[in-house]
Amino acid sequence: MHGAPVLEPRPGAGVRPVVGQTCPMNTLTPLCNGRCAIAGNHLFHGGDPSERYDFALLVWLIEGPAGPCLVDAGLRHVDEMNEGAAHVLAEPITQRPEEDVRALLSARGLAPEDIRTVVVTHLHFDHVDNLDLFTEARIVVSERGFREATKNPGWAGSWAPGKTLEGLTGPWADRVTLTDNAEVLPGIGTVWLGGHSPCSQGVLVATERGDGFLTGDVIFRWENLEQGRPIGVFDDLPECEAALARIAEMDAAVLPGHDPRVLHRYPDGFGGGP
Ligand SMILES: [Zn+2]
Fold first, then answer.
1. Does some domain include residue 270?
2. Residue 14: its pLDDT value, please?
3. What are the residues whose beta carbon lies below 5 Å from ligand 1 (ion)?
4. Cα–Cα dist 117/211, whole Å
5. What is the count of structural domains for the chain?
6. Looking at the domain assignment, is residue 273 inside a domain?
7. In angstroms, what is the span from residue 257 Cα to ligand 1's centroid?
């Protein structure tokens, strides 16, 4: 498992990719991997359980000098997720055939083997279920979170799927980069956030149109940021609040983890040329 250089601190924003300042050639495209709905008390800490909010399952494709990369691997075992996450799903996940990650990539002329790097925002099932498809990719996981996820014998109490931990510690281990707050590729850096899970990290991506910040599930939808209200599904509430405050200060376009509106706002991706 390899390390990566540590990022320069930046007042307010915390960190940013060092090389990204001079290598802003990335484009970020949201791919819809399925849909569901959650209740207001899960979108917001202290929210109204009678409210319903649409969710999209998102995988982000980054195209740039480092070759095609993904942020998160997406879901394919939909029934398993619907069973495991039933307590937070107001409407179960549906996934059309064209929303399968292999189909999404194929529609762009890509195969899973073409993906050079998968940066994992956190080790929850819907974000890592497809990791086994990316046999040629470097897999970037929060070091701090990974240590936490694997600290107990037999990974007892871990929030990460057993098959994912088996892969990361076994057959995939020589392709795994465990790191926190590092530039992992030119213009692409991770920012440890915690809160939603101990392994939650954001991904800061430098583009020609400025930086995009993929929050993972630390922010579910733009309302969390706009209303300053943390998510209602968390491991650590103070960390969620700190992450929200930190993201609000960032000089970057904030791209939430499950907001379906990113698909309409950035249908051709964020950051590309005119
Ligand atoms: Zn999620």
1. no
2. 41
3. 126, 217
4. 19
5. 1
6. no
7. 6
